[in-house]
TrEMBL record, chain A:
The keyword Membrane applies. It is a single-pass membrane protein. Keywords: Cell membrane, Membrane, Transmembrane, Transmembrane helix. Residues 102-259 form the Anti-sigma K factor RskA C-terminal domain. GO terms for biological process: regulation of translation. The chain crosses the membrane at residues 99-119. Its main location: membrane. This is Regulator of SigK. GO terms for cellular component: plasma membrane. The keyword Translocase does not apply. GO terms for molecular function: sigma factor antagonist activity. InterPro entries: Anti-sigma-K/W_factor (IPR051474), Anti_sigma_zinc_sf (IPR041916), RskA_C (IPR018764). It is found in: Cell membrane; Membrane.
Length: 271, 184
């Protein structure tokens, strides 16, 4: 393209108005550097657009000048030229996400560690609580047991202190010299208690039975439970009148009349 | 609007001082050209906040790569404007890319402020210039100069044949050239 054609093509005006791409601009600058004629024409077009820009000028905020000049003085000069690339901007903009990602990973790890720590603590607490509950139950059981025992002792004491009760010692017969027990009888209240039993363990199908002898007639005074554990006095059936008490071994459930062959011990009520 | 009190020194002297890394020359450079550059940048990026960033980036780049400016290839202002315009266009493209959805909702506000700037034609020179240009010529020039569109982008986006775009741009610059001859 000759210079005349080039000038007439309108490309210099497009350059001045900013309508060319970077590559097209480079080409115009190259042609302008080669030819003074083109250079002058380009200068004229650019001067016109510069004047147009001046007409549309808008003064920035006055504070901006110091801000920008301050930036230039602190900014390292020259060698930085080629690194001036707008692609560095998006890289900076991704950094909050990187930061957030890193933070979320750290939070995840911390929460994992805390979860493990709290889980083990909870487990330990559960174990300690189970032990505490067990020992508390044992304690309650002991207290109940002690209370029962105390009650039995109080009952025993009350009976022994009560002068209305007659203590009757039942001694083992010839066949069973080791057997012995005490009967406490209150003729006024007709109450009968058994205490300090020393009797051999009965066979599994048999059971001891107490008898009150009134004028030679035996009267059922109650069965001794096989499972009875001696802790206090055992309350028996009421007896209105008796001169003696005896204990026999009878089939389970007791008998209407005592089996005299199985007489274990007997004793008279002292007048 | 350009300040009448701006101290004017010759472009050659200014260029020589800038080449010598004379930092006081930057202050002069700023006084002489910042308003004209800012006027173009604001019209491209449409918000003053972004325009201030772009102006700052432009001056940093101008200062740091001043050795790349070749007076043989063109006027100082034209080179500075090209630097600023490239930064401004990069900015709106990246902004558009990043906030495509939000700009859609914000655009009426932007357009309102842009309209205020675009029709801020109180200056007698602007009115004269605008009266000398046909509406078609003015449209092409403003799309190129103040929106940063290339000739082919205008042809595509505004459905105008490329040849017509070239013709209108050329005649518009000629009109302005005649109008301002000797004033710059």
């Amino acid at each position: 393209m000759s210079n005349e054609e080039y000038l007439a093509s309108g490309i210099l005006e497009l350059y001045a108005a900013g309508g060319l791409t970077e590559a097209e601009r480079k080409e115009v600058e190259r042609r302008a550097a080669e030819s003074p004629e083109i250079c002058a024409a380009l200068d004229e077009a650019c001067a016109a657009m510069e004047a147009y820009a001046n007409l549309h000028a808008i003064a920035p905020r006055p504070e901006l000048k110091q801000q920008i000049l301050g930036k230039l003085q602190t900014h390292p000069s020259l060698d930085e030229g080629p690194s001036w690339d707008t692609t560095s901007l998006p890289a900076e903009e991704t950094s909050p996400y990187k930061w957030m990602f890193a933070a979320s990973v750290v939070l995840f790890i911390i929460s994992g560690l805390l979860s493990y720590r709290f889980y083990t603590k909870w487990q330990q607490a559960e174990q300690r609580l189970a032990k505490a509950v067990a020992s508390e139950q044992l304690m309650a059981q002991n207290v109940r047991h002690d209370a029962q025992h105390t009650q039995q002792l109080e009952q025993t004491l009350a009976i022994m202190r009560n002068s209305a009760f007659r203590a009757v010692a039942l001694n083992g017969v010839k066949a069973h010299p080791e057997a012995s027990l005490y009967v406490y009888w209150n003729p006024e209240e007709k109450a009968v208690y058994v205490d300090r039993m020393q009797l051999p363990a009965p066979p599994s199908n048999m059971q001891y039975q107490l008898w009150a002898l009134d004028k030679g007639t035996p009267q059922d005074a109650g069965l001794i439970p096989t499972s009875f554990e001696e802790a206090g006095m055992l309350k028996m059936k009421t007896v209105a009148a008796a001169q003696a008490f005896a204990i026999t071994l009878e089939p389970k459930g007791g008998s209407e009349n005592p089996t005299l062959d199985n007489l274990m011990a007997m004793g008279s009520v002292e007048i | 609007m350009p300040d009448q009190t701006i101290p004017k020194i010759s472009e050659d002297t200014l260029i020589a001082r800038l080449r010598a890394r004379d930092t006081s020359a930057v202050s002069l450079l700023y006084d002489m050209y910042s308003a004209a550059l800012y006027g173009v940048i604001v019209r491209i990026v449409k918000t003053e906040e972004v325009a201030e960033d772009v102006l700052q980036e432009a001056f940093v780049k101008i200062w740091n790569s001043f050795d790349k400016y070749d007076a043989q290839k063109g006027r100082l202002f034209t080179w500075m404007l090209n630097v600023s315009r490239n930064l401004a266009i990069d900015k709106i493209r990246s902004l558009e890319y990043r906030m495509k959805v939000s700009t859609d909702t914000l655009s009426p506000a932007h357009q309102a402020s842009f309209a205020d700037i675009a029709f801020n034609t109180d200056h007698i020179g602007v009115r004269e210039a605008v009266e000398k240009l046909s509406p078609e010529q003015k449209q092409i020039i403003d799309l190129m100069y103040f929106k940063g569109l290339t000739q082919s982008e205008i042809a595509e986006e505004h459905n105008i044949p490329l040849g017509t775009v070239k013709t209108r741009a050329r005649s518009a610059v000629k009109v302005l050239s005649k109008l301002f001859k000797g004033s710059v």
